Amino acid sequence: MRVVVADLPAYEQFLKTKLTRLKGVASIETSFALGQLKRSEVLPLSVS
What per-residue confidence (pLDDT) applies to 48? Predict the structure, then answer.
């Protein structure tokens, strides 16, 4: 899953109020990008 949030506190809020409350979620592993390779305003969303 990829999540786009405004800042770290927003991500923490998402984890606490949404993701950790889902049935079947036993653990969460997080990675952050420390640099920017390409700037784009378009989210990479695929339509199924």
Answer: 67
CA distances to 38, 39, 42 from 15, in Å: 26, 26, 24
CB-CB contact of 16 with 30 (8 Å): no
Measured CA to CA in angstroms, residue 1 lies from 28, 29, 45 at distances of 11, 11, 12
25 conformational bin, left if phi > 0, alpha if psi -120 to 50, beta if neither: beta
Residues 19-29 pLDDT 10s: 999 999 999 99
Task: State the pLDDT at residue 17.
Answer: 94
